[in-house]
Amino acid sequence: AGENFEQTPLRRTFKSKVLARYPENVEWNPFDQDAVGMLCMPKGLAFKTQADCREPQFHSFIITREDGSRTFGFSLTFFEEVTSKQICSAMQTLYHMHNAEYDILHTPASNDKESCSSTGDCNGTSVSKLQRFNSYDISRDTLYVSKCICLITPMSFMKACKKVLEQLHQAVTSPQPPPLPLESYIYNILYEVPLPPAGRSLKFSGVYGPIICQRPSTSELPLFDFPVKEVFELLGVENVVQLFTCALLEFQILLYSQ
């Protein structure tokens, strides 16, 4: 993905694509494959081994169209074992190429080699470099690749959508299959669970337990289903107070994030 090739192959990102979507067409919400793919995996496709942390990660996004209409996306990214021997072999080849390029770029000059041979440190250095960068061995390591499941909704029911995605992921990875076929749960969420009326809450069945979503009435504050605690954890109390002050004074606010 146009990254610095000094990065090891497992630290690079690769182009992702949408594998499937359901339903195929929604009249009020045309599907933008490129936008959804980029927003679901903003850092691209990633590979890891059994030595890396592979905990599922949840995030949300907003798609704003030219007419100002919005749809909300909620995605759960997890890692799945790569079963294709071709992809595993390709990763091994990338590592061989990377190590060869590294050795060429960092080979010491002839004078340095002579000094190294006199001190006897060169061999140890090259071995340590090889161990450092050759971190994928097809005969020893298990390769994993990132995959994402996403829900796109007309309103930002973040907590309910997060539970739905987590339960779907649990059903896929659990050794015991759920009571009903997975497709029936997806169909139920998309077609049989109604949008709760204003001022009411709705309880519906997930794969492993009930899920509740609540919609404020017209006399209440607009729907904001995101935990404020995370803002304080990310920014700190002083920055939140400063941000709130700037908002009250109508200052321009710019948030910069990776």
Primary descriptors:
alpha+beta; 8 helices; 258 residues; four-stranded antiparallel beta sheet; two-stranded antiparallel ribbon; 17% strand
Characterization of the model:
The strands form 2 sheets. The chain has a 4-stranded antiparallel sheet with strand order 1-4-3-2. It has 258 residues and is α+β, with helices and mostly antiparallel strands. The chain has 8 helices and 6 strands; from the N terminus they run αβββαααβααββαα. Helix 7 (228-235) crosses helix 8 (237-248). The chain starts with 32 loop residues before the first helix and ends in a 10-residue tail after the last helix. The protein has a domain at 1-104 and 136-154. The model is unreliable at 117-134 (pLDDT under 50). It has helices at residues 33-40, 85-105, 110-119, 122-133, 158-173, 182-192, 228-235, 237-248; strands at residues 47-49, 57-64, 70-81, 143-153, 201-205, 210-214. It holds the Pfam family DENN. One of its GO terms (cellular component) is cytosol. InterPro entries: cDENN_dom, DEN5A/B, DENN_C, Tripartite_DENN, uDENN_dom. It comes from Panurus biarmicus. GO terms for molecular function: guanyl-nucleotide exchange factor activity; small GTPase binding.
Present the secondary structure layout.
Blueprint: H1 33-40, E1 47-49, E2 57-64, E3 70-81, H2 85-105, H3 110-119, H4 122-133, E4 143-153, H5 158-173, H6 182-192, E5 201-205, E6 210-214, H7 228-235, H8 237-248
Antiparallel strand pairs: 1-4, 2-3, 3-4, 5-6
